[in-house]
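The material for today's practical consists of a large collection of protein records. Getting from the letters to the tokens is the skill we practise here. To make this concrete, we reproduce a full record directly below:
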Amino acid sequence: MISACVYRRWPQLPELIGITLATIGVVLLTIPSLDRNLHMNRGDLLTMGCAIAFAFQLLVLGYYSQRERFEAVALGQIACAAILSTVSLGIEPPRAIWSSRVIFAVVLTSLFATALAFVLQTWAQQYTTATRTALIFALEPVFALMTAVWAGGEKLTLAAVLGGGLILTGIVAVELKPARSV
């Protein structure tokens, strides 16, 4: 929807349907964090702020990945992540007991979950729209739920199943239509 405002190009009906279904699905997946009066907690607000920041990141990435070399754009993202992470240390210092295992985990996630992920995302986003990328990212809570059920013993609720199903349906609704030429 931010893309529609910036580029003044309203999403097509399948995209609107997909966005709506995925949004309802995400809400269903997050219902347990809402209290009886539907008040959001601080974590919910931070998550929404993060989602908005990611939406802008996808929009900017969609623009530059189609106009610049993906390697340069990915390097810029990695540098930005490193700078912002360093700045955040002054705001929220890490609370870790440093050991060789923790250092290994930090290096591993820095290389694969950040650097490699940014390179692959930038390369792939040359070939799709920000809306499709955002819907694909909507799968993250579905995979988080599957991991929580499989590895963490989380109980699978009806709301979670419906939420995951709506997210997948929303993605399929967008993916089954031909891509709009950019």
Residues 69-125 form one domain. The chain has a mean pLDDT of 81.
